[in-house]
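User: I'm curious whether this sequence folds into something compact or stays loose and floppy. Could you predict its structure so I can see for myself?
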Amino acid sequence: MGGFVQDGESSDDAAKRVLKQTIGLEDIFMQQVAAFSNPDRDPEARVISLAYYALVRMDEHDKACVRENGAHWWPISELPEMIFDHGQMVEQALVKLQQEAGYRLIGKELLADKFTLLQLRKLYEAIFQREFDPGNFRKKILSLNVLERLNEKDLSESKKGAFYYTCKSEVTERGLDRIVKV
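Assistant: Here's the prediction. I'll summarize afterward.
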């Protein structure tokens, strides 16, 4: 979805406003991707667009608001044909998200306060659009020393259960400054 920047409004504030109007949520993690300014991108007028990506929990959005605004959720692998250079915007947003996930723990906004390594791996597999070897992912993510294991297990994932983890408080405050390549 898109919109226009209003008088006295920054592009970030406009993006937050459009997101709230479209899905009914505030305080969503959002990151600017790029400016798209090719003079030929819209045959009707000279338009400069700033693209953003947002991390939205699918279970929290306002379904009526989305329906009212004509928005639709699509799997990234099944996107419909888009107008102008919007497909390029989506591609660059995914690349930016993957780059961010490559150097810091990203997507913790999409996880519960406590989560299993399987849940974290599934999130990263969705971001990178590929599967990770479970053992290698576990070894790499634990070597970063950004998670704290809790003394509690989720028994729904396996017979012996999977330990819950949470982000260490200093990670939540400062982000992750090391490469996460798995």
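Summary: The domain at 105-182 is CATH 1.10.10.10 (Arc Repressor Mutant, subunit A). Confidence is low (pLDDT under 50) at residues 172-182.
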